Amino acid sequence: MSVGDTIRLAGYAIRYDVVSTLYEDDAGGGYYLTIAPGAFKKAIAAGLKAPLQIAAHDGDIIGEVGHWFEDDVGLGWWADISREYVTDLATITAAAKPADHCSLMLVIDEETTAEDPHLGSPLRVVTRASAEHLAVGLTRAAFAGSKCWVPSEFNEHTPHAILDLNAVWRETYLKVQTARLDKRMRGRS
After folding, report:
1. Gap between the Cα atoms of 34 and 16, Å rounded
2. 77-80 contacts: CB < 8 A, separation 24 or more?
3. For the chain, domain boundaries
4. Contact, 83 vs 13, CB < 8 A?
5. Which pLDDT does position 25 carry in this prediction?
6. Of 2, 26, 14, whose CA–CA distance to 146 is shortest?
7. Which of the two ends of the chain, N or C, has the fewest CB atoms closer than 10 A to its terminal CB?
8. Residue 142: pLDDT band with limits 50, 70, 90
9. Could you tell me which of 122, 126, 123, 121 has the C-alpha nearest to residue 111?
């Protein structure tokens, strides 16, 4: 696929130190999750890739996320997908009630339990994780602040929260790209 045949989708799959919605456990109780900064470091270093699904965790696969980074905000990502899915992405950029959340299907490798419960239920702190897939185009997600966007479609209706997140995302993206280029250039000398 050439660059003109693709559209970039970007976002934060997880915001660090944000408490999830309540999960139910098998015993009829509940717990909350939070993701510690650095939880995806090993997965990213190992070449983390995850299918990109639209509108639901069991939605159609529209591409693959193979670009990830961690920064102070959380787990950032981007994927270049075929323009054939541009109509599927329209809900993400809608001026009214955008479906601009994304949800990561976590694979938890290590966790601890915080000393203090959250709202009376245990708070599990994920310290090492990976991903099974990423769902985009959702109206809500278990972790507040997990967002996705189409940078090329920004306009006067784009919410300030998305523009602000994109500014931080872009800064880290540029650092990642510069580091990759530097590494390639050192390999050529």
Report:
1. 7
2. 77/10, 77/11, 77/12, 77/13, 77/134, 78/8, 78/9, 78/10, 78/11, 78/173, 79/8, 79/9, 79/10, 79/52, 80/1, 80/3, 80/6, 80/7, 80/8, 80/9
3. 3-188
4. no
5. 87
6. 14
7. C
8. very high
9. 126
